[in-house]
Amino acid sequence: MVFTSFNFLIFFPLVAIVYYLTPKKYRWLSLLIASYFFYINIKPVFALLTTGISLSTYIFTRLIDNTENETKKRNYMVVNIILILLPLFFFKYFNGINSGIFTLLESFNLRWPLPEIKLILPIGISYYTFMAIGYTIDVYNEEIEAEKNFGIVALFISFFPLILSGPIERANNMLAQFRESKLPNYKMVSSGLKLMLWGYFMKLVVADRVGIYVDAIFENYEFHNGTSLMIATLLYTFQVYADLGGYSLIAIGVSKILGLNVRENFRRPFFATSMSEFWRRWHMSLITWLTDYLYTPITFAVRKYKIWGIVIALMITFIISGIWHGATLSFVFWGVLQGVYLSVEALTKNNKLAFEKKYNLSRKYWYVFINIILTFILFSASELFGRGTDMSVALTIFYKIFTTSGDIFIGTSSTVIYMFVGLLLLFLKDFTDEYYPDKFLLFENKYKFIRILSYSTIIVIIFLIGVLDGGQFIYFQF
Amino acid sequence: MVGNLYIFNFNSMLKKIIINIVLVGITVFVLDLLIGKNLDYNYFKAVEGENFQITYAIEKTKADVLIIGSSRANHHYIPKMIQDSLNLSCYNAGMDGCVLLYQNAILKSVLKRYTPKVIILDYIGGLEDEELSYDMLSHLTPYYDTHEEIREIVELKSPFEKIKLLSNIYPHNSEVYSILRNTFQSSKRITDNGYKPEEGVWEKEMDTIKTILPYEFDKTILAANKEFLYLAKKSGAKVIVIYSPIYLSFKQKQELDFMKQLCKEQEIPFWDFSKDSMFLNNKKYFKDVKHLNHTGASLYTNIIIKKLKKELQLINQ
Fold it and tell me: Which of A86, A401, B27, B287 gives a 20 to 30 Å CA spacing to B206?
């Protein structure tokens, strides 16, 4: 049951009604039941895994909390992190490791073909694994007390709006909210509904439509010229933004309607003027998680190397981020690219600032524009390796972009037209939110008539040009 | 006291939210009605294009020879040649990407109005449980209200299709461009009874062998396949199932065996061109691996005409 399915549009209002009607003391329980119902309906066996991780996290965080012995505390934390990571490694990297070994055996003619076992990745495992690890570390660092109610911990791990694709939440934000289970006020419900509506627009009108065009090119990359491949590469970045960004908005909106505040995941990333700024706007819940639990401790550990310590920390953090996305060489390379981009920026930061100050560039529109475009191109180029394709395919596409050219592939003209309508509306919304936050308001207009008409128009646009038979969210695979 | 006030605030908040949702609902309802009815009107007004071809197949054609199938049917059979040679009217109701469920719906609509003399089903397989087979039923949603015989098939799209089809816009989802284009294009294009020629020769590398590994057949599509042959045969028309030429050596034994067996049971001729040496690996006749270009289609239609003549002579004798 994904957010874009009709089932969800029936499921969620029912959950909200039951949640509102449940006595405050048991509201968390109604959400836990709803979350497990949601997850079990995707694949029942996956729920065993979330239960196992919840149980292990509950037991070990209580043990950490109940001991004063630092060594024991540390051991409990390490054991729990290993236990949490085991399923992730097993499910996520099993197939990758297998095919790697098979390739090696084949190269030495030692491969003896027997029936292969392919494992299906439990959906959302990367997200709830990170949430459980974060919670364990927070308890170890005494930033939060271990939760005494197992049900609340299980709810934190399995909370249905977040379990499939995040945002990756933190225990210190969610546990207290689950415990208090406050009902939402008008502002929260209204804002939640608006976020959901725009999230559906981003997913159905933009992401899935761009996906049709991009897939038509990438899935037949051998037959397309460099110009079309370049356009597809640039558009793919928009697709991912609209896909995961749209999903995140729906997740945040759903949570708000239930009276729960969930962290932001995207903040108009394509208006970033540098890669470091880009990563403060793109998949923010992942990057702040990596910063807090990986980058900062590494930077601290290698602080004696000064700026080069930062470079080391950046490289390690983003390579791990690449591996988190998948166990393929192309994902690792994606991580390396991000690390290199950010390291170069870190190393040249002072010179760049001095240069900008000298010529007063940071206030010049053309300079800001060039930086925005450059950042976008750099990230889009890296996304070629972040699509989950083979390294050889990504390299072939990359090579073709620079060596071949020709007419741009159009395919079905209606797809291209709808795609640009969607992209244009998304751009206008992000542009006005970025540069004119108090002007051109539609969803937040002071006149009710305009607000109602805006919501209705977006719904009608979804009916008209949304991909209503669309597929899954891209980030479900991670 | 505080608790009561909180509940009062929550209730008044809910009231406010519900009023706003109702207002949005009414506005959406009005817009949906206005836009949807307008799209519907213009959709059925079309005189060319894909939408027109579907409408023509479902509501208008009275052709003696009816060709049903996917894009391969659409690009492989030239009705004018069949018409001129056999002196029988012919319509090509093949549709890109549409396999057995769609084809079954077309057949049911046609048989409700008349019985063609010859029904040709161009078979490609496609018996797997693929979402696309169901998604392609979107082509039929504009006919849901007016064609009782295809409702059950359209409802296979999703369990909530009936509810979705309460909307006036939904049946025309993603069709707005083609509807507007047909509305504002004044010139009438002469189409060859549904046939769309593929121009050009595929110059780049093409696979020469492709193996389709055995898979579990989708029960619904399987049933639709059986029903198609049963209904077509029962109507009294001469039914012929054809696997038209393909560039690559397509190893799909399971699907071919299934259809051959089915045809045998129903005493329907099955003409298999999948390994025809004239076409196999012969680039000049193909636009891509699965589709003949116009030259290939002309040659192939000629072969079909000869075979049809024999078949029809046998009937007449």
Answer: A401
